[in-house]
Design a protein that fits this description.
154 residues
Length: 154
């Protein structure tokens, strides 16, 4: 795995083994070298589209084809990102949920629960953070961020 640079994202996303595994659609086996290379080389049989769920959305990155909802939106990285954005960075790292802040985003917005739009917003931000894309675009290669957002919300 290449070292992650603060300024250059060209080694991130599918070009980084760990990030690639998180971004990999659950329909594909990232551990299969042929699949990994096909995704990296934009092979037409391995398109990464907004309707294919990345593994970071699932608890332990595990998808159950018999029960696709099992563990969905329970991925550790996604849960930490939601806490980081909407409560505080300290709550994301602290299992007890302790926060070192006077007022967080949930308080400012008077949020009583996590709604689908919160999950969708965070999932889109997380996908961009993990990707190799240097600048924000609604459509990143073949991946439509807006469509991804609404697939989660709906």
């Amino acid at each position: 795995n290449p070292v992650i640079s603060h300024q250059d994202k060209s080694c991130c996303g599918f070009y980084h083994d760990t990030m690639g595994k998180l971004l990999c659609p659950v329909d594909y086996d990232w551990d299969d070298v042929v699949v990994r290379e096909a995704i990296r080389n934009y092979h037409p049989d391995y398109h990464v589209m907004s309707y294919s769920w990345p593994s970071y959305l699932y608890k332990d990155g595990r998808y159950d084809p018999e029960n696709p909802m099992k563990g969905l939106f329970k991925g550790e990285l996604l849960v930490k990102a939601v806490k980081h954005i909407f409560t505080s960075p300290s709550s994301a790292e602290n299992p007890s949920g302790f926060r070192c802040t006077q007022c967080d985003v949930t308080g400012l917005l008077r949020m009583n629960s996590i709604q689908p739009r919160v999950i969708a917003y965070t999932a889109v931000q997380l996908r961009f953070a993990l990707s190799s894309t240097e600048a924000w675009h609604i459509v990143d290669d073949d991946f439509d961020q807006e469509e991804f957002y609404y697939n989660i919300v709906d």
